Amino acid sequence: MSDATHWILTLVCDDQPGIVHAVSGAVVEAHGNITESQQFSSADTGRFFMRLQVESGIDRASFEAALAPVTSRYDMEWKLDVVGRPLRTLVLVSKAGHCLNDLLFRQRAGQLGIEVPLVMSNHPDLAELAAFYGVPFEHRPVQDADGKQAFERAVLDVVAEHDVELVVLARYMQILSPELCAALAGRIINIHHSFLPGFKGASPYRQAHARGVKLIGATAHFVTSDLDEGPIIEQNVVRVDHTRTPNELMAIGQDEESRTLSQSVKWFAEHRVLQDGARTIIFK
Amino acid sequence: MSDATHWILTLVCDDQPGIVHAVSGAVVEAHGNITESQQFSSADTGRFFMRLQVESGIDRASFEAALAPVTSRYDMEWKLDVVGRPLRTLVLVSKAGHCLNDLLFRQRAGQLGIEVPLVMSNHPDLAELAAFYGVPFEHRPVQDADGKQAFERAVLDVVAEHDVELVVLARYMQILSPELCAALAGRIINIHHSFLPGFKGASPYRQAHARGVKLIGATAHFVTSDLDEGPIIEQNVVRVDHTRTPNELMAIGQDEESRTLSQSVKWFAEHRVLQDGARTIIFK
Amino acid sequence: MSDATHWILTLVCDDQPGIVHAVSGAVVEAHGNITESQQFSSADTGRFFMRLQVESGIDRASFEAALAPVTSRYDMEWKLDVVGRPLRTLVLVSKAGHCLNDLLFRQRAGQLGIEVPLVMSNHPDLAELAAFYGVPFEHRPVQDADGKQAFERAVLDVVAEHDVELVVLARYMQILSPELCAALAGRIINIHHSFLPGFKGASPYRQAHARGVKLIGATAHFVTSDLDEGPIIEQNVVRVDHTRTPNELMAIGQDEESRTLSQSVKWFAEHRVLQDGARTIIFK
Amino acid sequence: MSDATHWILTLVCDDQPGIVHAVSGAVVEAHGNITESQQFSSADTGRFFMRLQVESGIDRASFEAALAPVTSRYDMEWKLDVVGRPLRTLVLVSKAGHCLNDLLFRQRAGQLGIEVPLVMSNHPDLAELAAFYGVPFEHRPVQDADGKQAFERAVLDVVAEHDVELVVLARYMQILSPELCAALAGRIINIHHSFLPGFKGASPYRQAHARGVKLIGATAHFVTSDLDEGPIIEQNVVRVDHTRTPNELMAIGQDEESRTLSQSVKWFAEHRVLQDGARTIIFK
């Protein structure tokens, strides 16, 4: 099957008997061979989730035609993509560069499955870093409500113009309006530090130090209008001890932020992240 | 589907297109709903592995009848079991009780999916521990070749009498005869300490200390006549440093042995462990 | 030095130059040899912390006499104990036995450095488990405010009678009165589950499931009157995914609770846990 | 103490009473304040190891004069260095660039505490990578015994010329002569992959795949003439499963090699790695 295409098919619908049989029948009809398959039935929402990788020599139109009766009969949300096609990804940043650097380094090394048409920022600081990786950078100051509104309009314009599939908040330090959250629902990811227990308010690393936490970490999640409370995609922690200063805790936490965000972007770009109400299904 | 049975179906056959469709068709015919499904195509052996959980209201005979045309057509090895049925498990021990204690505590807490009709040992030391958990204990000294042969015959008798499905060597310190290994192939699990690099010969913790290893761990594997070289089921390690004495290394290693063995037994009891030549497929 | 005693000396005082020299001078005078030494200067509180292990053939009175000029000059809080002397430890439990089982198993195996004169509970369920390990068990129902007061008085009586050095809340599910917390300050340890982010209120595992967390864990901490907010001693987490039910999350969380609590008790018994305001210094 | 120097002092001698007192007395005399202190008495070799960080306003000659009576009296091996002084480090490579890239990236980011006057290789492949980081690169083919001898002579010349303090084998694929190992004893570090169990011979990742290992890792160690058997400095592992191809295992293993080697170099550069016979003491 040397000239076959390697497809990714994701499906979501109400759970009921016969789905797998119907889908695998469509794959047989499309002369496809299933090379990877994962499914999950959510007891919480009654929804069924499936991700397939299929090798097949037929073209997209024929594959879609083979799928149509099934996706229609089960009222499925579905997506058909090709393994390895880079996802068009807009990155928003402010001043801290650790997440952006990790994303662009891995993107260039071919580890992430994304392409980045633009980096946007409310500060000029990271222009040089973007330039080093050959990525366009746009600086738009956000000093008041008008500036913020203009920034968000520009984001939506860029999303439309470049047909952006994913927006990544790589330590972008502005709170998004509910309207922007809604417009990008399901395709915008944020990263933030995480502690056990959580700390509210300013200077969380200082608070974590004061309390003497033994683990610090990071959480990547979808952005919803409920600040920092969207569905969790990935979390990591690392062990620390009493000798660490607040600044060292922050450096360690930033490493966790970088790798947690990059991992989440990679999974999203491979269509391994599906939403089930307030939870995510991760088909690693 | 309140009075439905929750089935586990495992299948192995040569890989080829159409298997998933055929199997899911049989499930549809059995009025079943697939609640969990995992598959793997081995590039090494050309074999296809599948594990399904299926809810269905029909009885075993009808389910098997629905499966028969498919399992026969693809020349499948297959097994049909019920979720939660405890696996009949014989445990062999010697003097060290850490693995037995962990197994019996978790078994009683309902975390392991096994029942233990008997613990057999070549030493009397652990009789009291077994008694606390209400498990019969049989002590048979092994002082010479005859004693060893008698012990192994007794094992096979117990396996036959109780229809034992799994034998666990929970720090049983006798080498098994090739005949016993062969008779129990694919249903006997051992645990042993592991280091990087490995150490041959006596007093491995002392050797590990002398070399200053930074990680020590444990490996659970199927027993074959090739000593400690059977297919690996699970491995864990934990970090140590230069301040540890050989005795402390041993205590740490024993903790890893306990949790690694219990994890492996749990997966086996849930039919999540399949063999692919010298490797295992673990459908977690 | 075959008949030497192996001492543990812990010291806390305001940080200033010359302390190490003064302390080591006292050790020389006591004909002692330092076999382990750790120190920490807290930038937060300006306090200096030190833990020494010293081999010396002299008796306690002579050692204390050698130390007296130094501890007095630097206004030190200090403690002198003997390596391996088991700490008298009272354990409080309710219904869940996983932490108690882990503590008693490790205690009997000589891994914890404690002795347990009594287990007290507001429920009868764990009497049998305590009996298996040969530990006295006292059941006192707590059904109302009076019962609670009586229970707490009994705790203080036991602490006095057995000269208890450590109280462990091994899933004891009653909130302690501020008076009891104050009376046992610095020698009472609690364990509870931990998540990122934290969840307030009932059924935390159900909440964690609903939010789809990817890590769950446990925190051991000193008890203060500020509920679950005392100085943290140890934390652990383990990775989970979307397939886990709330019950499975709870089982996984309980494993983390057991090992985190046992680890904390072991460090405390070895005088490796010192308090620095709201933080702990852990001299592992 | 704003114009104080921050010193690192490491000491090794036969263990005996009074060392800490004597050393801390010399520090007092040098008007120093101990900010970090670690010690270890080896039960294996009877040697005592100590590492201090000391802030003091006096110059090197005065500090050494204060130490001289003590180091002489206890016949100490000792070293006095300044925190943050970059260690002169020669890196040897062959074709694989992952370790070199990680070392140079971290070196430039100021995370490693080294400077690299030269990269030497028996292949030309990595010249461009070295150039990107602005590091001189010397290619010397090694095609026969003469070429090998010439390469090793060149290494010793570079070590002498640049006063090299550390030689790092960053996947340098030639076996060193016993003479070179002896000449660089205690200041040459190698990295190699590690498995449980170990695999001898060619294509270890293929063997590890065939055996279905669940953990793969890396070991950094001092080089001795006993191939791959020198004192271990650091080890790491990462979890893998049955879906990984041999090539993927290799990619994962290379990540572990990179981070394990960089970690070891960092500790060495901070004088945190001391040798105790066949073991290392790591004062993290």
Automatic annotation (TrEMBL), chains A, B, C, D:
Q: What is its EC number?
A: 3.5.1.10
Active site at: 228
Q: Name one GO molecular function term.
A: formyltetrahydrofolate deformylase activity
Catalysed reaction equations from the record: (6R)-10-formyltetrahydrofolate + H2O = (6S)-5,6,7,8-tetrahydrofolate + formate + H(+)
| Pfam families xrefs | Formyl_trans_N (PF00551)
PROSITE patterns given for it? ACT
InterPro entries according to UniProt: ACT-like_dom_sf (IPR045865), ACT_dom (IPR002912), Formyl-FH4-Hydrolase_C (IPR041729), Formyl_transf_N (IPR002376), Formyl_transf_N_sf (IPR036477), PurU (IPR004810), PurU_ACT (IPR044074)
Keywords, A to Z, come to:
Hydrolase, One-carbon metabolism, Purine biosynthesis
| Occurrences of domain ACT (ranges) | 8-85
The pathway entry for this protein reads as: Purine metabolism; IMP biosynthesis via de novo pathway; formate from 10-formyl-5,6,7,8-tetrahydrofolate: step 1/1
For this chain, the family text in UniProt reads: Belongs to the PurU family.
- State what this protein does: Catalyzes the hydrolysis of 10-formyltetrahydrofolate (formyl-FH4) to formate and tetrahydrofolate (FH4).
What's the protein name? Formyltetrahydrofolate deformylase
UniProt source species: Lysobacter korlensis
